[in-house]
Amino acid sequence: MTNASPHTPSASGTFQGKIGTTYEESTPWWPEEQKLPEDTPNVVVIVLDDVGFSDLGCFGSDIDTPAMDALATGGLRYANFHTTTLCSPTRASLLTGRNHHSVGMRMLSNFDTGFPSGRGRITTAAATLPEVLRDNGFNTMAVGKWHLAPMEQTTPSGPYTQWPLSRGFERYYGFLEAETDSFYPELFYDNHAVDPPKTPEEGYHLSEDLVDRSIEFVRDQTSVTPDKPFFLYLAFGAAHAPHQAPQEYLDKYRGRFDHGWDAERATRHARQIERGILPPGTELAPRNPGVVPFDELSDDERKLAVRLQEAYAAMLDHTDHHIGRLMEFLEQIGQMENTITILLSDNGASQEGGQKGSLNPTAFQNGIAEDLGEMVARIDDIGTTRAHANYPWGWAQAGNTPFKRYKQNTHEGGVRCPLIVQWPRGLPHTGEVRQQFHHVNDIVPTLFETLGVQAPEVYNGIPQLPIHGVSMAYTFGSPTAPTRKEAQYFEMFGHRAIWHDGWKAVAFHQRGTSFDEDQWELYHHDTDFSECNDLARERPEQLQKMIARFWVEAGKYDVLPLDDQGFAYRAKIPRPGSPRLRTTFTYYPGMAHLPIAAVPPVMNRAHRITAHVDRATASDEGVLVSLGNISSGYVLYVKDNRLVYEYNFLGTRYTVTSEEELPTGPAELTFEFVKTGDMRGVGHLSVSGRPAGSADIPRVLPHFLGWQGLDVGRDTLSPSSSSYEGEFAFTGTFEKVVFTVAPDEEGAEPFERID
């Protein structure tokens, strides 16, 4: 045989063997496999949502959290741990080790502000923890809430560049939005939408499902490659509103909070001091503005407030039970001993239930007050499939004991959160409390140091931002070591703060006012844990020093420009490239569920919906298009041989029904909303161009239609109407549905109306 030509390197890299004409004349070679040390620990990061500093039993509460308490007993509690005061930014810092403005997540991933700090996505200049761990030999799995992708991009057409599987995770199951109904969640498996595996009537609840999937992912991986470590990121929907739990958990807490929020705060405060969570002498902060003493509430207000807190406690207790199941599973498969488990909340307890509480989060987002009498009349719906409940300010303040204010604010009530670290094989001390100041951006460098992993300077050809956090690993064996954190800024919606060398300056910002009018407060945190003694007047030089340091940090970490525009305002402004920028939308039956951020923008706009169908018989019926859930939305359907449109205004339903029965055969079934004023109009029905009925729709929502998206040909998840059961899928032949939407809110008739 002729001699083979000299070997040249292939696309797979330089081959270090020998290639001859035949295998007898050749020498094989295999690249050395990347292997981590045998004792490399697994990592489990558990994120709770909107859980206050004192809400876990091991941090002072009476809520039953035995699984989380057991993690604390076998690990360490951090009592001076801080987050960013909002969900997406905290997750961005948690998964990158950088400050949230620097990576592009100044607020929620729902928005792009047009500035580098507010793109609503994590820059590729900040490789995520799963990207780095995956490239270092870990299997990576994410389960639960993501909320780090631009929400207009969470459709079947993507782009998928900011979905979990594109940012380092190899498996994903969960929901992509800020919140979801725990009985009817909007679920995604890897890169596609899926229906929940069973119904609430069959016992479904999201928290249980997320732990089931976590166990499945870990079991699959450890069964095949038991020597390979895994990183599991488990982000619960709990205890973000809506507060929902199985009935047995709701029943368990009946009467447990009849004493009210003032007594609850006092009890938690005393317990925190007794258990070493708070230093001796720590004061209990005064009531937040707008929080009424519990004894001064009316009977109905107390009754409602107690029931809302019972639902919150039931949801947290239920979540704890399933965390316990996960821990038991890790023990059963022999992985618990060498697993680093980190459990935290993403921010303080939420103020989004308002002064009296809420059964409808869409009302809060639209700035509409709910009627107390109507809420009390629905009190037995709280915590169930029939309500989207959130508790009032008084209970949120109790959750944040002993601090001031709440989620969204940069006082300690918004940014001081529970943190538990457990590692049976690796922690030299357990059952103790750590008081060193730390921040969520410190988690990544802690894990990198513990795992022996280096943060890449260049990733996928892109120079990387430096890690902004500092490792907390020194605290594992040094209870009293001084913190290694030098400074940390905070900013959200214009609220600002800076911590440095034991001092904190903080400014509460009133939305819509000049930032120059904000009053800065000054606290010496080393002696004033709960920010009760404002030293701004006594120490003006120190205050000015702290304010100057804030501006230095703001410049360094891309905090500017300050922005106090709220969620509802921004929800109406599509980012460039958003599918909502069109005025015509055509959808086909069988398409995947469409998230709310990508649906046609019909809020307070004239619009038309036309379904092209063919009904063989008068019995063909069902949903043509539906959006929303029990809280808000709309649905167009055929029932009893008539065309029906329902608009759900925060539980009040306005209905337009065709006056005559529908013909069989091909037809264009149309609903048209014509504005007669701001946030009101008339709904018109037509069949193949012929008027079929009309009715006033006296109120429509101004900004936000809720958290549940759009379906074509069926009504999935939480029902849009109570006039039918289940999905009520359309049984006729369905070609398409076409939306035509006015370009803005001003025009009452942007297209020729059917007369």
UniProtKB/TrEMBL annotation:
Q: What residue stretch is flagged as signal peptide?
A: none
Q: Which family does it belong to?
A: Belongs to the sulfatase family.
- PANTHER family associated with the record: ARYLSULFATASE FAMILY MEMBER, BLL2667 PROTEIN
Looking at the record, the residues that make up the Sulfatase N-terminal domain are 41-453
InterPro entries assigned = Alkaline_phosphatase_core_sf, Sulfatase, Sulfatase_N
Name of the protein in its database record = Arylsulfatase
